[in-house]
Amino acid sequence: MSILERDFYARPTITVARELLGKKLVRQTGGAELSGVIIETEAYCGSEDSACHAHRGKTPRNAVMFGKPGVAYVYFTYGMHYMLNLVTEEEGNPCAVLVRALLPLSGRSEMQARRKKHGKELANGPAKLCQALAIDKSLNGWDLTLGQRLWVENHLRAAARDIISAPRIGIDYACEKDRQARWRFLIH
DNA sequence: AGCACGATCTGA
DNA sequence: CAGATCGTGCTA
């Protein structure tokens, strides 16, 4: 196994969002190791992107995005859900990749147990993914290069022809050009 | 201090 | 399609 280092994240957000497809996300908690292959991501590209939380400047919530790449940005929304993002680009450029879906590898039953509703799908959707992997605000700002609690490993590399791009989900408030940007990436 | 709304999910 | 459910940021 090889853990992704900071230089992997310190690159253009769209590149990182595409290359994260096929990588292995690992969560270590309470003795259990939960992991899965990343199969869906979205790029949020800094202050110029009206869909990005950092669009209106730095606030206590989004401060982590303005810091080092390779750090988790976890936030709470809809009064009940957590979202996992991985900070990208150089420090001070507030960009991140939202991790939207996983194909579970290890810890399937633990993930199932953590999900309040026991549907067949465990980690297809950013909120379900966080629920399955026990990701909450305590991981906001966590350094993914430490190889503890939460990290990403090399696994597979998705071929370009197997990647579908599409408009991002749930950003109706963004301006026309950013709503149309095909910055959601899925493995075919 | 008050308020509108959200990078969602579920079940009817 | 409405409801759950509350932190956040904007307005005043």
Notable features of this structure?
8 strands, 31% strand, alpha+beta, 5 helices, DNA-binding, 3-methyladenine DNA Glycosylase, Chain A, 188 residues, eight-stranded antiparallel sheet, globular
SSE blueprint:
Elements: H1 6-9, H2 13-19, E1 24-29, E2 32-45, E3 72-77, E4 81-88, E5 95-106, H3 108-114, H4 126-132, E6 150-153, E7 163-166, H5 176-180, E8 184-187
Antiparallel strand pairs: 1-2, 1-6, 2-5, 2-8, 3-4, 4-5, 7-8
The protein binds a DNA duplex (12 and 12 nucleotides) through β3, β4 and α4.
What's the short version?
The protein is α+β, with helices and mostly antiparallel strands and 188 residues long. It has 5 helices and 8 strands, in the order ααβββββααββαβ.
**Quaternary structure annotation:** single chain
Which CATH class applies here?
Alpha Beta
CATH topology value? 3-methyladenine DNA Glycosylase, Chain A
Reading the helices and strands in chain order gives: HHEEEEEHHEEHE
Sum up the overall morphology in one term: globular
Name the average pLDDT. 95
How helical, in percent, are the residues? 10-25%
How far apart lie the N and C ends?
Answer: 25 Å
